[in-house]
Specification:
Distance between the termini: 48 Å
Number of helices: 10
Helix content: over 70%
CATH class of one domain: Mainly Alpha
Radius of gyration: 26 Å
CATH superfamily of one domain: MetI-like
Number of strands: 0
Oligomer: single chain
Largest sheet: none
CATH topology of one domain: MetI-like fold
Strand content: under 5%
Length: 282
Amino acid sequence: MESIENRKRPGIVKFNPSQLPWWGVVIVLSALGFIYLLYSDQNYNDTFIFLTQGLYTTLRITFFSYIIATIIGLFAGLARVSKNQFLYNTSTLYVELIRGIPLIVLFLYVAFALFPLFVQIVQALGSWGLSFSAESNFFTSLANYSIRAVPMEGRAIIALAFGYGAYEAEVFRAGIQSIGKGQMEAARSLGMSYTQAMRFIILPQAIRQVLPPLGNDLIACLKDSSLATVLAVGELTQLGRLRRASTFRVLETFNVVAFLYLSMTLMLSSGVRWLEKKLKIE
């Protein structure tokens, strides 16, 4: 007869250390140790308080640029699957052009080339209007428009939005093309126009499919917002550089910078995984 010790006891699950997410344990322990440093070490504490000012700027740049990028990406993605040759070629030119330029170069180009050109066009328009109506306040304001009226943070937002808009366009294009062509044909056979079928049938399904990659791009956008430091925008990385230069506390400063970025990206990653499980997206 089989001994009692050798019998399997139902309902009892054996603990298997190999099943533990060791990467998560390491991150949690590291975070706890870092939080202890923030409370016990005055240098870490002062650095953390100083850098929190740039944290809000980083989040603001990320939020606004990502919203604009999503809107650009949606329309460019729709144009990429359009049968209209003008829309298709224009959107393809935008996607291929922007994706072929490094983001840091795009930041510099938008801030120091495109925006000054835009200001010159506005001033020329104002001067042209004043030649017809010298007392017009509107044209006077255009003629006196200064490049200083456009803050560097705004330029960084536009540059990051244009950069990520090209990537979002490909995400939306892939999501739309993942929906079977039969659904579009069925919608058209019911009397819907192409726009109605895309709006009510295709896009709702496509958006559900592209939510996880959109979430991943949000995380990448948050990290790439650090490139705004080349424009001297007071975001997290730039304040870290200023703190390092003024205190010569290199290790403490960039430990705090890395900790803040890691905390934000891990929270966003958890949100993306929760969204995937909620929508049961494979």
